[in-house]
Design goal:
Distance between the termini: 89 Å
Strand content: 5-15%
Shape: elongated
Number of helices: 13
Number of domains: 3
Mean pLDDT: 91
Helix content: 25-40%
Order of helices and strands: EHEHHEHHHHEEHEEHHEEHHH
Strand order of the largest sheet: 4-5-6-7-9-8
Largest sheet: 6 strands, mixed
Structural class: alpha/beta
Amino acid sequence: MSELPVRFTEILTHERPHLDEIVAVWLLHKFGERRFPGVANATVSFTSARKLADAGAKPEDYEARGVLLLGIGGGRFDEHPTMEEGRKADDCATTLVARELGISEDPSLAKILRFVRAADVQGNASPFDISYVVKLLHSRYPADPHRAIEWALVAIEAKYEEQLRFFTVVQPEFDAKARVEEVTVGQRRLKMVTIDSDEDGIHKYARSEYGARAAVVIQRRSTGNVVVFGNKQAGVDLREAAKLVRLAEQAAKGHVVTTDEVRLTAEGQVPGAAEWFYHQQGQMLLNGSLTQTDVPATRLGLDQIAELVKVGIDPTRLKPLCQSTGRCIGDVCDWHGWSLARCVALRRPAPAAG
């Protein structure tokens, strides 16, 4: 390529640009000023491969005039095959731009780059993901491609802000406050995180590869409200934990209303412990949420909840004496009133011999 001009005033791409080209435009506008002076305010224009071919100009000719070609016309940001060379394997305009700008390894951009590359290179798209909706908007507004671009840019910026906060705010909060421990779930040892934090993304960070890959996250906000997240892919089942927490909540009030086993493990709320909502499909036990902000805080302490959850999620855990004798020791055990499934099994008489 020839020497770059002083100012870039235009980004030229194909008609009805895909999510790939839109994200590449966003990257250039947001991060490209140092590499391509003026590009932060460059306008976006549209053409076709045929018009470019008829014009006869090379990519470097356009750049000499302050125009960057994007996803079209060959050149540095076009992954498609040309008469002179084959396709840039496993790349798209977005990844080419990110590499040129030196931001391809930025963890705050990783999910965006990965998603766009999969959508463009592998054709991975569902009817409701952003790449498919961009196509729908182009179909709805065929004479105004900027309608689709503007909509997508709002969504992309929101995702980036979430990811940037993930690594600049949530990560330090997690590192400073999280208590990470191993817990038993059946025959496996999994990670559980307990934390005091008002950060909405802290439970996601705790479960991520950057955090603790936690199978259980218990978060208490400054309001006293607590949420418990279980990873069902890891085999975590919060049903009995929900029962224990609901029973303890009622006991803390000094008035037990609901004792029925089925109701205590049921999805939703139960009388006497309406502060807790059990979401069975998502394996969440919620004492309030982002959509239910007026739920009274639990009376239970964070450590108490953590211990109840540990007991609830491990179907093999028994009191030491019950474990050693293989039988229930009766109501002298402080677990007796909980009627855990594992304990109930010990109370059944052994089958008669012969």
